[in-house]
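Here is an idea for our session: we take a single protein and study its fold together. To get us started, please write out a protein record for me. Once you have written the record down, we can walk along the chain together.
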Amino acid sequence: MDRPRVDYDRLASVYDSRYSVNRLAGIGEALVALAARMGARRVLEVGCGTGYWLGELASHAPFVCGADISIGMLEHARAKLASAPLVAARANALPFTGASFDLIFVVNAIHHFEDPCAFIRGAADLLAAGGALAVIGIDPRLLCRRYFYDYFEGSWERDLRRFPAIGDIVNWLAAAGFARIEYRIVERYRRIFQGDAVLTDPFLQKTSNSLLGLLTDADYELGLRRIEAAIAAGTTEFISDIAFPMIAGWRQPPAGHGARN
């Protein structure tokens, strides 16, 4: 899978501006509901970034912890989460052992991990019996529309290489020994820009998301010129319609104990 590096230290100061457009509240609600359903007391987010999602869970579990490779992102997380342990670590080299957590979750980050399948195996070893791993993020194979793909050459193909398919994640969970696996859409982001209003889309900024951030400056500018040419030619709508599925797997509880759900 294509895993080019994004410099999130450079993006950290502007990263949270994406949530001024849409809080993606369905994701937070799904995580809080999952933690409550399980009675989760020890929660880890891998790829926690600026701590946005950990902040959603901080008042719902006695112990929350975050891990991210970007020091810049963790500095912003620290401003939100004064008491939560935050560690600088790669997803495939987490500094934890044993059954340390009841819930581990990943939001919009697994496509950055060096080996997502190996991460899932490792996460299984860190979960208490009956604990769960939840992975939330887009699968471009399921997207209804993302206008970027029409104007930035090769961006669709790049995302297909970067993002694991939902079926692959399900298979990795099963192979790692998760006893029950659930899948559902927890959020849908839909925006329609009319004509040149698309140029005000915060997600059209090169620093706003990893897809555009990975483009060369020349390819990014070429995509913008294509959008401007489409506007001049009378294109009236630019649509983003993106589904966010959550795939959750549960570790088998010990014999004679019911699953925590």
The longest strand covers residues 178-194. Confidence is low (pLDDT under 50) at residues 257-261.
